[in-house]
User: Which sequence fits this backbone?
């Protein structure tokens, strides 16, 4: 383990660590453009030059290995002058169009200029090399070649992560520009990542650009709800509206990447009308709004009545693989613990089989639900029925009379969704009494006996267990308008009404109960579940 | 759709045999393609890419790095006159003036009959026989405005 | 004076293998093949031969960095991308004595246990490619190349590979990238080509002149070679001289030969009764010397360094009193801006910026602070780039301005 000194601070690092990484460990930031922890080192930007004692020239910290006894300076005058010089060079041909640039506020040129530059740039516009602006690169990306610092991060992303090579350098010298062949659109399900890794305003998001200046946004840590991979992400929002989703680096799950569908999944959440108030179907067969207390009392007593008349075996608990672990846990606590239900299911399709199946060899998985593994680990799956079709069959035979159903539409759509949704509708029609917890309105919801409005992904605190069995926390970013509650709270209410001797005031409380109760989750702490997430036991 | 003729295909196969892997053959194949098709158009880049199994963007990226791989058509005789130090010292520009006067076109333009185009180029390695120019695979050296005129006349009658 | 490179250069039939062999060609290769490769490397080390491409790194030492018993093949690449302005020595060797190069390459390959080798020839030299290819064909036919070199249990193939117009490809890692079919972007070192070169295999890149020096060294012994020249600069060296001299051309002199003698004798002096103003002794990238600085300077690595310049490639450009130095610098700066590969920031932006400022100055649109800005740009580029191209721009910028500042100031309006 080599020990080195950076700015007088002694650090011990793993062999093979570069200076820039060692500095990061020590909390020392070295300015850079081309270095990226999840891409091969390229060393082209020369921003990360540092002084290493006994080396005649400044060395690039991204490509220089930390060695025993090395003495590094990252902030002396010689290094600062070098960084300032590189920055001045980068602005020679830059259009300096910050007022109309959407990168403003998160631009490394701006940021470093404030720290290292502050020089007056007097290069007349006619002396600058002109390149293409506002090049349409498909649904995700807009290119401005003049703002590019030619760091090659985007090129390396397509060369080394997706292996598709769409973006390249063209030309030579100060006429080098990045681009695609004939400006063709990026036909790549991961193209949005190049916007994130572009350190400047060269690649901006077609979806997000000019929607909001970034300094007005709030950021909330979350986990993608788009599939069972469960990529760590960040929700950027303002005044209850989500503006964009960005990856949070998680070396164990998604590195620094997100797929485009996951990135755009918040639009699906915003699409469609929400269920805003609890509703109970009256004798006339029409649903009418009720207050929560009335709704849960009614549900609790009706379920127990059916149980008493027909046995617990006549009630099905149908969970959603898009609900949080906390929701599924209290669902199980109430249904099994209070009502005595033994029949559970969560599969509207083949979620249990596709949960680990890859859709491609980068991130995407076939199962478009974030918590199928959570449902499996909590045992919310019944061998008896063999999926929803078995349950429908059982209801038609009169063996099943009631169902408590949690339903969330998938945030990443596939052609099979409609069929899966129609099965849920069929199940509701097939039972005498149905309680549906839902976020979005659907035609068939009108047929349910009780509809309970719930918050969805991004609107509640909770955890999800991904395909690896990794529990990760997601935070509430926004609050929808209406009388919705998180699913866990609905069951907490039912548990209270039913007379359970335990209560929970936050999702964190529920998580603690979960880890105390469920063997697979035993011992996992809230902190561990933050990043990179904690693996559940293989039970 | 462009493609190599039989003879070019035979040469393509011969190029591949000279290298232990496929990729090093890319630039020789681009040279061959330029000989066949005149210049490296986007169509040519796409064809070479599909022939060798590389993205067209990759092929074009390589081609745009090298000045001899042309990104636009040139005349049958493309005259490239060295503008570097020794040639400049020995009189590049009087020769350039003569070329412009005779051909009536600016750099990178093609004469109406498609026969000539010209451009300035960097050091040709003819510093001792300056000024010099390259036309195809031939060097013309120790140029004077008079000799440039003679060369153009000779090529025009070719 | 002994000639180790140009001994047969004036023989018009030296391109024919039969005549080459009558004059003793390939005898050194036969001798080398009877030696152990390790002994050959030692012999080259002992000769003191240094790389003739410009950097002057000891050739034998470069060879010794190649790992023994690597599971990958070793490649020898001949750098024939001669493109440094003022330099045309390799061209002379290849045009007039192609078999000397093939013999030198075969000796080097045998010493390095290399069985596949390429000549990376700049694309503009296509006419030389014809000469070289004919010589290679002859060598194959004569059994000098192919499965059994000179009848020995040693196989060697040499192929020609044409560049396509990029000065940077003369830099060895850029040459390797280009040979691999990529944009000629220089690589970050380490790893060095000796371990990770062409196709990630051990690779030696040697200049044409370096390789051409080998036959003489092997034939006559390292001691004879090392006896020539100075203490640290051994042997003989080719200088290509151009510009304002009566007899421009390629001349071979012993290292340590006086610079002024070379200009006045070999090169025939400055013609038309004009006075010498300045000399770029080693290709456009080395610092210019004023006429008075040339007095007493010897043509060897150390003496030129001491005089404030460098031996470089030996591409000497002579300026007479009529030359306007800012214009000359502008021509040079345009070249480096045009040839910057564009990979790393300081070179990409700095070379272009400097060239534009100089063009402005020449056009009478410059201001005095521009002169200091040029020097500042030189400081900002120097030593901060992946390869030496930016430094090759820095040296002329700095030396031209500091040595001929008044000429730059005269161009400025205020």
Assistant:
């Amino acid at each position: 383990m080599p020990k080195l000194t950076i700015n007088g601070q002694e650090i011990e690092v793993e062999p093979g660590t570069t200076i820039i990484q060692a500095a990061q460990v020590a909390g020392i930031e070295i300015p850079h453009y081309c270095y990226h922890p999840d891409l091969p080192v390229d060393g082209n930007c020369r921003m990360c030059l540092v002084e290493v004692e006994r080396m005649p020239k400044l060395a690039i910290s991204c490509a220089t290995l930390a060695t025993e006894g090395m003495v590094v300076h990252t902030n002396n005058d010689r290094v600062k002058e070098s960084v300032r010089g590189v920055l001045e060079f980068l602005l020679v041909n830059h259009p300096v169009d910050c007022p109309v640039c959407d990168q403003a506020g998160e631009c490394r040129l701006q940021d470093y200029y404030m720290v290292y530059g502050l020089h007056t740039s007097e290069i007349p516009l006619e002396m600058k090399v002109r390149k293409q602006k506002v090049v349409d690169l498909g649904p995700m990306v807009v290119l401005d070649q003049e703002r590019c610092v030619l760091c090659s991060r985007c090129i390396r992303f397509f060369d080394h992560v997706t292996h598709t090579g769409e973006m390249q350098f063209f030309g030579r010298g100060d006429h080098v520009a990045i681009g695609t062949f004939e400006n063709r659109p990026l036909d790549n399900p991961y193209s949005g990542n190049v916007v994130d890794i572009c350190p400047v305003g060269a690649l901006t998001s077609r979806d997000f650009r000019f929607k909001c200046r970034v300094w007005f946004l709030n950021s909330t840590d979350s986990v993608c709800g788009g599939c069972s991979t469960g990529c760590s992400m960040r929700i950027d929002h303002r005044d209850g509206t989500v503006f964009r989703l960005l990856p949070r680096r998680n070396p164990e799950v998604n590195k620094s990447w997100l797929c485009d569908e996951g990135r755009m999944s918040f639009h699906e959440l915003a699409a469609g009308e929400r269920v805003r108030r609890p509703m109970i179907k009256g004798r006339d067969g029409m649903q009418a709004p009720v207050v929560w207390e009335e709704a849960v009392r009614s549900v609790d007593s009706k379920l127990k009545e059916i149980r008493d008349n027909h046995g617990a075996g006549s009630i099905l608990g149908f969970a959603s693989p898009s609900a949080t672990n906390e929701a599924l846990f209290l669902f199980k606590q109430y249904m099994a613990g209070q009502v005595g239900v033994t029949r559970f299911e969560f599969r509207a399709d083949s979620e249990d089989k596709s949960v680990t199946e890859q859709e491609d060899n980068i991130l995407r998985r076939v199962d478009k639900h974030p918590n199928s593994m959570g449902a499996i680990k909590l045992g919310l799956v019944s061998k008896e029925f063999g999926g929803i079709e078995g349950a429908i069959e059982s209801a038609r035979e009169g063996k099943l009379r009631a169902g408590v159903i949690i339903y969330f539409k998938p945030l990443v759509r596939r052609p099979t969704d409609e069929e899966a949704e129609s099965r849920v509708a069929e199940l509701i029609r097939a039972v005498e009494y149905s309680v549906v917890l839902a976020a979005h309105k659907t035609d068939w919801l009108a047929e349910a006996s009780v509809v309970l409005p719930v918050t969805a992904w991004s609107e509640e605190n909770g955890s999800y267990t991904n395909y690896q069995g990794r529990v990760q926390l997601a935070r509430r970013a926004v609050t929808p308008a209406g009388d919705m509650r998180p699913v866990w709270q609905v069951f907490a209410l039912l548990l209270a009404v039913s007379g359970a001797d335990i209560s929970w005031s936050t999702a964190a409380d529920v998580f603690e109960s979960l880890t105390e109760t469920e063997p697979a989750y035993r011992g996992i702490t809230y902190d561990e579940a933050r990043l990179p997430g904690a693996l559940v036991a293989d039970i | 759709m462009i493609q190599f003729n039989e003879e070019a295909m035979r040469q393509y196969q011969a190029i591949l045999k000279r290298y232990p892997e496929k990729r090093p053959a890319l630039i020789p194949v681009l040279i061959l393609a330029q000989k066949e098709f005149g210049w490296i158009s986007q169509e040519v880049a796409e064809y070479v890419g599909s022939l060798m199994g590389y993205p067209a963007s990759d092929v074009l990226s390589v081609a745009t790095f090298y000045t001899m791989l042309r990104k636009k058509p040139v005349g049958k005789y493309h005259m490239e006159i060295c503008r570097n130090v020794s040639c400049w010292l020995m009189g590049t520009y009087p020769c350039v003036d003569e070329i412009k006067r005779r051909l009536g076109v600016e750099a990178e333009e093609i004469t109406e009959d498609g026969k000539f185009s010209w451009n300035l180029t960097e050091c040709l390695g003819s510093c001792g026989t300056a000024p010099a120019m390259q036309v195809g695979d031939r060097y013309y050296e120790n140029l004077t405005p008079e000799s440039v005129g003679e060369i153009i006349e000779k090529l025009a009658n070719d | 004076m002994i000639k180790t490179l140009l001994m047969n250069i004036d023989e018009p039939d030296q391109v024919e293998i039969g005549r080459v062999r009558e004059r003793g060609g390939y005898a050194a290769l036969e001798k080398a093949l009877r030696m152990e490769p390790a002994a050959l490397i030692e012999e080259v080390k002992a000769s003191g031969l240094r790389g003739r491409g410009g950097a002057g790194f000891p050739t034998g030492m470069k060879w010794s960095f190649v790992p023994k018993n690597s599971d990958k093949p070793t490649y020898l690449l001949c750098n024939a991308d001669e493109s440094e302005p003022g330099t045309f020595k390799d061209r002379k060797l290849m045009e007039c004595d192609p078999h000397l190069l093939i013999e030198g390459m075969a000796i080097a390959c045998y010493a390095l246990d290399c069985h596949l080798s390429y000549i990376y020839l700049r694309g503009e030299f296509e006419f030389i490619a014809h000469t070289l290819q004919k010589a290679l064909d002859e060598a194959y036919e004569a059994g000098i190349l192919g499965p059994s070199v000179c009848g020995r249990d040693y196989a060697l193939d040499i192929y020609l590979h044409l560049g396509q117009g990029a000065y940077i490809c003369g830099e060895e890692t850029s040459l390797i990238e280009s040979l691999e079919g990529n944009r000629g972007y220089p690589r970050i070192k380490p790893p060095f080509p000796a371990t990770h070169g062409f196709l990630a295999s051990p690779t030696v890149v040697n200049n044409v002149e370096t390789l051409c020096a080998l036959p003489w060294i092997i034939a006559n012994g390292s001691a004879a070679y090392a006896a020539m020249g100075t203490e640290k600069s051994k042997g003989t060296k080719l200088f290509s001289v151009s510009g304002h001299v009566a007899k421009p051309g390629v001349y071979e002199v012993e290292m340590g030969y006086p610079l002024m003698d070379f200009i006045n004798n070999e090169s025939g002096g400055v013609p038309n009764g004009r006075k010498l103003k300045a000399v770029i002794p080693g290709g456009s990238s080395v610092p210019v010397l004023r006429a008075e600085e040339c007095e007493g300077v010897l043509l060897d690595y150390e003496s030129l360094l001491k005089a404030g310049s460098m031996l470089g490639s030996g591409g000497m450009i002579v300026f007479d009193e009529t030359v306007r130095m800012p214009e000359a610098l502008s021509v040079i700066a345009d070249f480096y801006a045009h040839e910057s590969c564009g990979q790393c920031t300081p070179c990409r932006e700095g070379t272009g910026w400097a060239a534009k400022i100089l063009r402005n100055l020449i056009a009478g649109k410059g201001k005095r602070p521009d002169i200091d800005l040029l020097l500042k740009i030189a400081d900002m580029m120097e030593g901060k780039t992946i390869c030496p191209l930016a430094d090759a721009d820095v040296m002329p910028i700095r030396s031209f301005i500091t040595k001929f500042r008044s000429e730059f100031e005269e161009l400025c309006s205020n």
